[in-house]
Amino acid sequence: MNPQPLKTISFKQDERNVFFHILTACNLSCTHCYINFEQHGKEPVSRDTMEEWLALFHEPKKETNLILLGGEPTMHPDLAHGIKTAKKIGYHSVTVDTNGFLFHDLLDNIAPSDAVLSFSLDGPSAEINDPIRGSGVFSTCTTNLRRAVNMGFKASLIYTVSRQNINYLHLMPELLHQMGVSRFFIQVIGLRGRSASTHESKLQLTPEEWLAVIPETARKTADLGIHVIFPKVFLDKDEVFECSGNVAENYFIFPNGRVYLCPLCEDFPVNAFRIENNRLIKNTGLVEKNFFSLNIPEGCVMNKLLQPGNLSYDETGRPVHRISCCLLKQEIRGNSTPNSNYSAKQPGDRPLF
Ligand code: SF4
Ligand code: SF4
Question: Which domain holds residue 114?
Answer without folding.
Answer: 7-286+324-332
